[in-house]
Amino acid sequence: MKIFIKFLPFVLLISLTACKESFVDVSNPTAISTANYPNTVADLEQLLAGVYASQHSDGIYGRAMGGYNTYLWDHTSDLSWQGLQNWILMGQNNTLPSDSYLAVTWPHLWRGVQRCNTLLAGIDRVGKNASTTDAANLNLIKGQTLFLRAWYYFYLTTFWGESFIVNGQGGDKQGIPILTTVANSLSDTQVKRASVKESWDFIVSDLKNAESLLGKQTWTANADKHKVTGWGVKGFLGKVYVYTQDWNNAKTYLSDVINNSGKSLVSFDVYKTMFNGQNEFNSESLFELNLNVDMSYSGSSDLSMGSMIGTIIAPTYVSPTNGLPIASAWTNLFPHAKNLSRFGFNLGHYFKSGTTSANVANVDPTYVTKSQQAKANKTVDPRLWVACLQPYVDSMVVSGVKRPIAHYLDITELDMEAWSFRKYINLAGTELEVNRANGNNILWLRLADIYLLYAETLSKTGDNATALEYINKVKRRAYGYAVNTPSPVDYKSLTDKTMASDNVLGNDPLKYERWAELFGEFNWWFDVCRWKIGAQEAAYYQKVRGGAIEWNDASDYAQPIPINELNANVNMKQNVGY
């Protein structure tokens, strides 16, 4: 939203002036003095806009999320461009403490926390002389701020906490430092790590307080649609309870969202377009990051209203002059070929046997026909074509003209399935046409995710029949059937055969549906970690283009603390194995 651009300078100024002069000496004649700012609810709304904006900073959803972390760790993607060794190592599950991408994500998440803490202090200040009306508005601002602080801590804990809590174990491992106030001295920043359990408890505490303050708050004005609702808080709480295996609380919160929020699954026609700038804030969405195309700032900064994620995963299309692939933007990552067979796609390869050039002239027309029939007849999971663009079958728009998708650029292995990503890319043009500031909203929490989390919860609390029904609701929508009516594609049991044929997902509808439904939505890595299936996943994917995947159960579920942080905080300890 434009509000992010309009108000963000206030946040930057407050960030600089939030510490005492003895800690950081900043001489800025244009800075707003903390002696008279913030003083009003309007001032706090300005700061709140900056806290939301931090979610799409460079190290988070402005660029890094997915392409520079989860997509590589969970093998959603493989690498086209291989110009940096540390990127290849990430794809091999060998992330280094010196990794340049994590060195951006870590401080940007903490900047989000710091902005939350600055805002909470401002709320206390303004609240001392607040009217009844202002006090109600302050509660709404505080509820959102606590939700957002929990949001930033969620990523800090899931990326760097040494373990998830599994069967009551892992809570005593190293978690994340807990900071609730703005540092006023260097010593205030030398905070040791809390335990994993303490970190999750802190997230739950913030969310519970946010729940109390927001109640069933919803937002109807266009300028407010990006704000979290009371139901978004409850949905996030339900997800956290699943992640910490608190099944009783998970059941309470997830069922409340399902039964009382008024949310419903959208149709498949809406589902397949809602990741590409259409049907935003729909009936399925519980919380999404609101983005807009920004021709002034590229998406790798929270000064921008957009995101650069689409630039990294941008499609490759067929040149109208020579039939060869052309990059539509940076085009660094493409879907790992092993993902296609997981969706049930086993129709051979688009190039004729013996092809030596990735040219449209070498495409096998029989393959194209078979693919079109499989898509129409739904003999392959329809969500494959929601998540991915198929070479020489699908197309994209370039400068107003439809161009066929090509074999992915720089993939010299012409016998490899090298498709393009579809979710979160610009289908109406190239990423360069929108200044690398993609405006597609990030659907961060939606009802299908809630349904599957609820199914998992029910399976853990003895209600397999209802668990199966919620899994089937998600699958029915994918195949175009009525969500609440039995269909020909229903699973018959929790161990029924899925579209996948591998040992991990082949006979596990719950896991398969979470993988297929949420593919490319930055969730699978966390499922891999909390289910402890990293070794099985590594065995399935085997390798990335840069080399073999090398999984280590002892260390690879947690990422290394960046070396800069270890140097800056004497009380910070590295994760095991790094």
Description of the structure:
This protein has 20 helices and 12 strands. The protein is mainly α and 578 residues long. The chain has a domain at 314-423. The strands form 6 sheets. A two-stranded antiparallel sheet has the order 1-5. The chain has a two-stranded antiparallel sheet with strand order 2-10. A hairpin with a 2-residue loop joins strand 11 (543-544) and strand 12. The protein is globular and about 75 Å long. 51% of the residues are buried. Residues 416-578 form the RagB/SusD domain.
List the helices and strands and how they pair.
Blueprint (H helix, E strand, L loop, with lengths): L1 H16 L23 H13 L16 H4 L3 E3 L5 H7 L10 H26 L4 H29 L35 H19 L15 H14 L3 H14 L7 H4 L13 E5 L19 H4 L3 E3 L6 E3 L5 E3 L2 H5 L22 H13 L6 H4 E2 L5 E4 L2 E4 L15 E2 L20 E5 H14 L3 H15 L30 H9 L6 H8 L2 H8 L1 E2 L2 E2 L14 H6 L10
Antiparallel strand pairs: 1-5, 2-10, 3-4, 6-9, 7-8, 11-12
Brief descriptors of the model:
about 575 residues, mainly alpha, two-stranded antiparallel ribbon, 20 helices, disordered N terminus, TPR-like_helical_dom_sf, SusD-like_N, SusD_RagB_dom, cell outer membrane
Quick structural summary:
This protein is mainly alpha-helical. It has 20 helices and 12 strands. The strands form 6 sheets. It has a two-stranded antiparallel sheet.
In whole angstroms, the N-to-C terminal distance is: 40 Å
Separate helix tally: 20
Strand tally: 12
- Strand ordering within the main sheet: 1-5
Strand content: 5-15%
